Amino acid sequence: MSPPRFTPEQVDTCWRDALDVWDVRVHLSPPEPHVPFHPDADHQNEPLAYIDLATRQVFVHFELLHEMRAANSLTAVLAHEIGHHARFPHTLGWDAELRVLEQRLIPGLKQSLTNLFYDLQVNEVVGRTRATELADVYRGFQRIRGTTDTSPLFFFYLAVYEELWSLAPGFLAPAVLEAPLEKRYPGMRAEARMFAQTFYALPDARLQFLYFCSTFIRYIDKPEELTYCLPLGGDVSTPDVDDLDAALHGAGRWEDALEEAKERGWLRGTSGDSSPEDALTTIRRVTHHLPGSGRGELQRALVGRHYKRLVDQHILKLPSAPSKPEPYLRTTPEAWEYGDDPSAIDWTLTVISQGHLAAVSPLRRELEADLPPPSDLGVPSVEIYVDTSGSMPDPATQFNAMTLAAQVLSASALRKKATVKGVIYSHGTPVVSPWMYDEETARDFLLGYIGGGTQYPFGLLDSLSKERPDAMRVIISDSDFLSNVSDGDSMKRLVEAVRRSRMVVAFLALPDDQAARKVLAPVLAERRFRLVVVTWLSDFGPAAAALARALLEN
To answer: pTM, whole model, 2 decimals?
Structure first.
């Protein structure tokens, strides 16, 4: 329940008044008290208000609002949260676009500025009728956290509100810091006044964001170390992989706004380049600041989708059965009992076998895992060996043509309902996948990277060729493979594996095939061995598509 100082009737009245500020209908539950995430920690580290998008529940930290001496600001706080949901940003897809662009303009930025940007938009609308209440929130925030650590960024942000709401200098921004910061950043107060007059007059949200970044970057000394805390911050959810993926490949929508910003001279102060950049570089920048495993999982998912787009440029999606076959089949019938899943009842079998007793004694069938069927097109299983030595770039951070070639071969086989096994090797123990049946699993595995020296796993080739002699094997490497095959009895083991396999293809990046034909002369005599040389790395994708058509077409 709410603390006594906030009665249910008072909360309901403030909620209705907050909705009236935006004059919209929203599918949100009325506010409930926030339960501290860390009960033993200080209140000041908890959010003041936020919306749980999973349940569409609004939460308010009533105790913190009271401690800030801003209890009369509840309506403004609620209107602020509704504003984020209804208008700014309204969708996480838009938020993703801004996060992608700000990394182009301010590379390495540790904490996104988008929450500052949205708050400026929301508070302008709420402040038309509730400026005093919002000001009380910002003053209370500084009262409980102190002003000695106020950053230039936050000081300028507060100065903008002072100019927007016609407040005296020092009413929000700490007066004691005015002179030192004005000396450090000459014209700061005048710039805050100009920002308040210009920002809200711009006709387009894209232009607003570009102007916002070009102005606020002046007050960020080290973008890679930037962290800040707002009284109404942390109330915008983080975009997911779908939002970011769409934003990464929708940069063209910004070109007109970027061109106008250049003409106005806004982008001269930004530290980055406003021109389009490599998608993998942007992915790294957008995800580098995320904590823990979230960064790695999100980055890998975005990289996988990027390579999928590259793959789709070279091969067509077959309009056939789903790429991931149904893994469960109904099997042995058993008596259905009360409490079992009704959807498991096989009514056809029940009526046939039970007759008049079908309604009182139904039969159910368990679901049993079943391997996907073999290819209906007669396509063989494919083993793909990918060289990931130090001479090759990590595909997650820089485009790797050999990884793309492996992805093209894998997708070509899987789209014909074949199976694929991947082997990522360098020096030491290789990483081997199980037999894979769907593109997403294979794509994620083939993004693997080891680095270091190169040592082709001839022992593994020997064992796998005995295990699955019907498989087709493709080795993707460069001149290192020629060096490896020249050591010891490696050539003998390669020849034996070729004789056991359906076919072995050496898919190598070389300036020409002369050296390869000389070194591989013994195995080239075998009718099940093929040598494919790619002169330019940029040709690996098209060459892999052509190779897949030659090997996998009937």
So the answer is: 0.76
